[in-house]
Write a structure and sequence with these properties.
Oligomer: single chain
Low-confidence stretches: none
Number of helices: 11
Mean pLDDT: 97
Structural class: alpha/beta
Number of strands: 10
Bound molecules: acetoacetyl-coenzyme A
Strand order of the largest sheet: 1-2-3-5-7-10
Order of helices and strands: EEHEEHHEEHEEHHEHEHHHH
């Protein structure tokens, strides 16, 4: 399917979504969010896809919500339309999603990256929540997710001043999993996604669900959830295959069963 604001590719069992509004540094317009959500729906429903990568261009992952579209919004309108809530489709993906970020990831762009399961950054990546400079605050989870990633002090400074952090600072602060040379970003993201997609798909989905629990519940409840899911995995043929393959010194051939 052809979209107006994104490019969609399939690389074996990996779905790749490239945000593609170069004229606006991939600003997240309502059309782009609609296109992104439709592509995510497609990959979620496709049994042949085991992992999804979202990336932007060399210059920008996304420079935030579309300010030109947003500047005339009203309070009743944003309230009635529940503006931003539709952006959260990516957080409901059951399959793993990687954000591959080069260039600017600002405002909603930084927030979209943080909604993914982890962020792989190019050495050119720059992250920030500059909304305060526009007379508003982050509205797609920035005050909440950035604080969980980097702690109160740095999140507070970023959200109150709107300054950007570079890739090295983002890695030190725990915002990104790794930094790679910009020229290698998409290839590296596809490689990592390919590793994940080669695992047992239901197990990878359960790993994701369990890690996410750690943000939503107490340690005791999270451990209990993990234990029950781990025990249930002994009902998967993929557990038999994975462990037999180890003993027989061969690579496993998972069947997602
Ligand atoms: N919305 C709409 N258009 C945008 C945009 C945005 N968020 N960011 C950039 N653009 C447009 C620019 O207006 C410009 O278009 P024109 O050529 O028509 O003027 C084009 O993209 C290129 O941008 P610049 O000329 O500004 O490029 P630059 O390299 O000089 O600067 C930048 C890059 C520092 C990222 C700068 O564009 C910028 O500050 N952008 C806005 C960043 C921002 O404030 N984001 C937060 C948005 S609010 C938000 O996201 C709310 C939320 O929490 C959901």
């Amino acid at each position: 399917m052809a979209y107006e604001t994104i490019l969609v590719e399939q690389h074996d069992a990996v779905g790749l979504i490239r945000l593609n509004r170069p004229e606006a540094l991939n600003a997240l317009s309502p059309t782009l969010i609609g296109d992104l959500n439709a592509a995510l729906d497609g990959f979620e429903a496709d049994r042949g896809i085991g992992c999804v990568v979202i990336t932007g261009s060399e210059k920008a992952f996304a420079a935030g919500a579309d300010i030109k579209a947003m500047k005339d919004f009203t309070y009743p309108g944003t309230y009635i339309d529940d503006y931003i809530t539709s952006w959260e489709r990516v957080t409901r993906m059951r399959k793993p999603v990687i954000a591959a970020v080069a260039g600017f990831a600002l405002g909603g762009g930084c927030e979209l990256a943080m909604m993914c399961d982890f962020i792989l950054a190019a050495d050119t990546a720059r992250f920030g929540q500059p909304e305060i400079k526009l007379g508003v605050m982050p509205g797609a989870g920035g005050t909440q997710r950035l604080t969980r990633f980097v702690g109160k002090s740095k999140a507070m400074e970023m959200c109150l001043t709107g300054r950007m952090m570079d890739a090295a600072e983002a890695e030190r602060a725990g915002l990104v999993s790794r930094v790679v040379p910009a020229a290698d970003l998409v290839a590296e993201a596809l490689k990592v996604a390919g590793v994940i997609a080669a695992m047992s798909q239901p197990v990878a989905m359960q790993v994701k669900e369990s890690v996410n629990r750690s943000y939503e519940t107490t340690l005791a409840e999270g451990i209990r959830f993990e234990r029950r899911v781990f025990q249930a995995q002994f009902a998967f043929a993929d557990q038999k295959e994975g462990m037999a393959a180890f003993v027989e010194k061969r690579p496993p051939a998972f069947k997602n069963a």
